[in-house]
Amino acid sequence: MKNISLFIALICMGINLAAQSGKVMDNLTLQSKILGMERKYAIYLPADYETSARTYPVLYLLHGGGDDQTGWVQFGEVLNITDKAVKEGTATPMIIVMPDANTTRRGYSNNATGTWLYEDFFFKELMPFVEKKYRIKTEKRFRAIAGLSMGGDGSFTYALHHPELFSSACPLSAATGPLTMDMAKTYVRRADSTATDAQIEDYFNRQSVLQLINNMPENQKKAVRWYIDCGDDDFLYEGNSLVHIAMRKKEIPHEFRARDGGHTWTYWRQALPEVLAFVSQAFHQY
Questions:
Q1: Tens digits of per-residue pLDDT, 207-234?
Q2: Are 61 and 43 in contact (CB under 8 A)?
Q3: What is the CATH number of the domain that holds 59?
Q4: pTM > 0.85: yes or no
Q5: Helix, strand counts (H, E) of the chain
Q6: Is 119:110 a contact under the CB 8 Å cutoff?
């Protein structure tokens, strides 16, 4: 009888633990008219998503070059890390959307010649799609963006292009776009030799994080909460440091972290709990 009781107790414990876990789906799709193809995305849903009727804040979490929508799931351990943060009370339950930006062309930006419009897809198709399909709060204060490397670049530029949409932005080990016009010319013409000087200049003004920071209007300086993190051994450390200095000079409030480490998943897994805590501060309406 004791063995039966113990068996039942263990089953109940297992059910309870399962109920406390979130859920990840990493091979979902939507059709894009802008890109003319089907696009994949992954999503993390909180533990109580299927048993409640509430709506949730959302974090758009962008992968780096060479990965796809499964990167944060497989290597970033987003399920375990987020579940743990929510359980410990350092993060609020949220939905995390992880789009694929590594199909056909790599990156989160519109290209210089207007023949590949990923950023348009993100804002005009992906965001409306997921925020209608899932119970997501659609106010700015409940929307955040973060990402690593190439996804850090996307986090920078998306929040700088649309400060009205994001409460927080957390670029990790971020690419920061072309630092100079000459760098922009080299990068753009390598991808598309037909790009004109005017198109390259427009691309530089849109995709250089330093240029966007230096040209930021006074009334946007406090529009987004910034958390920037880059390892001291990272090959992208210089760009991140220059952005940090530019933000200091412009008196743009931000958090800047330079921890021990390089351009590795070990570094980003350690960064994710801090990101979740940082964006949750805004979600909690501090």
A1: 999 999 999 999 999 999 999 999 999 9
A2: no
A3: 3.40.50.1820
A4: yes
A5: 11, 8
A6: yes
